[in-house]
Write a structure and sequence with these properties.
The complex is a heterodimer of chains A (315) and B (62). Chain A has 315 residues and is mostly helical. Chain A is 73% helix and 0% strand. The model of chain A has no long low-confidence stretch (mean pLDDT 89). Classes of the chains: A mainly alpha (315), B mainly alpha (62).
Chain lengths: 315, 62
């Protein structure tokens, strides 16, 4: 039937076109399929990158398109890398990045370890735990501002319940020392389920026969955890760290809704700072240099991380 | 240690990737540390050298 159909199609193809198609090599066909993707990547990724590098060496401002654009060399880079405010912004980002990753990995792995045990209501708990990551970051940021309100916020009343501190005596978002922790707390609440799901996939991929062999060798639960569970789930954990690290390095929406970068500049992460330079102060050249610095940092980190991940997988 | 020096001298990927990795990590730490502004100033240069080196040496033979 299909042979018959193929013959009909072949006979219907004009001889000139048929000859041309028959002459196309496998290599040419492969290029025909790959070329649209390469063109798309060039247009969407490579061209903007090259253009950003070019802009970073000029004094171009988007809101003054008629002004002459001058080549300033590495002046924008020098300004950024000697600016104490940019340095403070990167420190705020480092604080956010380190603490969110540590907390999310520890809590996420612990939850995955517990959920992996068979117990009654297992599926219900899994569903309830993953609920926060299904919400929009802007919505989460907005409703946590209400939870953090000193007068009506439930968070302050919870703190009063466990410590006896007057709820109106402190403001999580308004306090310079507490504000960096508010964004850590909310991001951890929202994204720990994601880390948990990745860890859960890792834990479920470990064959039960390995544990059975360990039981036969009379290995304790503690030893089984350190010599079987953790090493075999490590690639998944590293993957979770990579995803969360890159995601949190460019964290924007949640923090803007929650603190707006304040009080002062205590929660002014680099992405918020960059957006202000580019679209509020309109220093396009300066902002482009800032973006290139962040790009090189993330690219370098991702390179060594992927190398480490491959090493762990090969082990 | 001897293997590492041998790898460096004979342009082997492992040893040179190690050097590039250390430079990138050092650059990132310098970028985000709260101790000295001068370290922050030179952080990008260190990270950039490390990243470019990593791209180049990843094509070296094993």
């Amino acid at each position: 039937m299909s042979d018959h159909l193929a013959q009909r199609v072949a006979s219907a193809t004009p001889p000139k076109l048929a000859r041309r198609i028959r002459g196309v090599s496998d290599r040419t066909i492969a290029w025909l399929f790959v070329t649209p993707t390469i063109l798309l990547l060039l247009a969407v990724n490579i061209f903007p990158l090259i253009w950003t590098i070019r802009l970073s060496l000029t004094n171009f401002r988007t809101n003054r398109p008629n002004n002459p654009v001058e080549f300033v060399g590495i002046e924008n880079y020098r300004k950024i890398l000697t600016n104490p405010d940019t340095w403070a912004s990167l420190q705020a980002t480092a604080h956010f990045l380190i603490w969110t990753i540590v907390l999310q990995v520890v809590i996420g792995f612990t939850l995955a370890y517990l959920i992996n045990k068979k117990f009654r209501g297992n599926d219900l708990w899994t569903t309830l735990i993953v609920l926060p990551m299904m919400l929009s970051p802007a919505v989460v940021g907005n409703f946590w501002t209400f939870l953090y309100q000193p007068q009506i916020g439930l968070f302050n009343y919870f703190i009063e319940f466990i410590s006896g501190v007057d709820p109106a005596s402190f403001s999580m978002i308004g306090d310079v020392s507490l504000a960096p922790w508010t964004i850590v707390l909310v991001d951890t609440w929202m994204w720990t389920p994601f880390v948990m799901l990745i860890c859960l996939a890792g834990l479920r991929s470990i064959p039960p026969s390995i544990y059975e062999a360990a039981e036969c060798d009379r290995a304790s639960k503690w030893r089984q955890f350190w010599t079987i569970t953790l090493p075999m789930a490590l690639p998944f954990l590293m993957l979770a760290v990579l995803f969360r690290g890159i995601e949190n390095f460019k964290m924007f929406d949640l923090v803007v809704q929650l603190t707006g970068g304040g009080p002062g500049a205590t929660t002014l992460l680099t992405s918020i700072d960059l957006k202000r330079e580019a679209f509020e102060k309109w220093r396009t050249g300066f902002a482009s240099a800032y973006a290139v610095i962040l790009f090189v940092t993330v690219f370098g980190l991702a390179s060594i991380y992927v190398k480490a991940l491959n090493k762990v997988k090969d082990r | 240690m001897n293997n590492f020096i041998y790898g460096l001298l004979h342009l082997r990927r492992g040893a040179w990737e190690m050097v590039a990795t250390v430079l990138i990590a050092l650059g990132v730490v310098m970028l985000m540390q709260p101790l000295a502004l001068v370290l922050f100033t030179y952080s990008f240069l260190v990270t950039l050298i490390g990243t470019v080196m990593f791209i180049i040496v990843s094509h070296f033979p094993e």
